[in-house]
Amino acid sequence: MRNPTSSSSISFAAAQHQQRQPAAPAAAAVPLSEFGREMQAGLARKPRRISPKYFYDAAGSQLFDRICELPEYYPTRTELRILGECAGEIAGQIGPGAEIVEFGAGSLTKVRLLLDALDSPRRYLPIDISGEHLEAAAERLKADYPRLAVQPIAADYTMPLVLPAPLPGAGKRVGFFPGSTIGNFEPDEALAFLQLAARMLRGGGLLIGVDLVKDPDRLHAAYNDAQGVTSAFNLNLLRRANAELDTDFDLDGFAHAAFYNAPKQRIEMHLVSLRDQMVSLNGERFGFEEGETIHTEYSHKFTVEGLRALAVKAGFRPLAVWTDPERLFSVHWLGA
Considering the chain, what is the average pLDDT of its residues? Predict the structure, then answer.
């Protein structure tokens, strides 16, 4: 995978000197997309990081769908098992005529178990940052549920947004946030999102899937699969930057790394530079030392009690909770 170039002979001191120098006029700065602005800011800070929400272009969304099918990746199949076995109890908590708002909807797979169990759901509002992937999934769902109003919303669900007014006669407005995506946030970000969701769902509730603290070996395997799909998913972020932002990341010059930080109870995912190298973005050059990383994702793990305490702090009322026999995963019903 290593692919040394002439840039490897540049000392890192020289690279630092060049790091913030403007490029030639032909590469002068141009207005950037939100992705570009965040990538530029992320490369400029130390340690470097970029939000995991930018994993999910069309290719990244497809790779994540493959991750969910891997033998090592227990969260998806365990959560599906809980939703399938407990769907009747969950539907009883939600009640008839509900409007379902799914945050980070992805491929709209898990919500089908919920829709099948609910009593006459009125409308489904999936929110996802990957508009192309969302539209395709929404069309498939519409075909399978012709009596359900399906209204996809291409947006960043972590930001305040105005949802359509409830349909006349609709029941509770219920948030659905599966996949333990809450674990991707820093603790203060998780609290802020839950506070936002509590305001949006007032009078209804939130059904949220949460990965639990467990054996570190099992966690390591889940994020370092034998087929290398998670590695491709992580590296796809750089491929996307090259395609959309005209950066010049050498994908052979970076490697996927994921490990469990036990004191913080979280998986950390990084892209590691395999050599000293330079990367250009929008007229700026950024130097990397061998071994330097771009942090791309956290995946915090929770205890049942810890999640319930966080929910109370955010303004929810913890109600029912369901887990699998091994207590690998949990699904919580939180009243708003």
Answer: 90
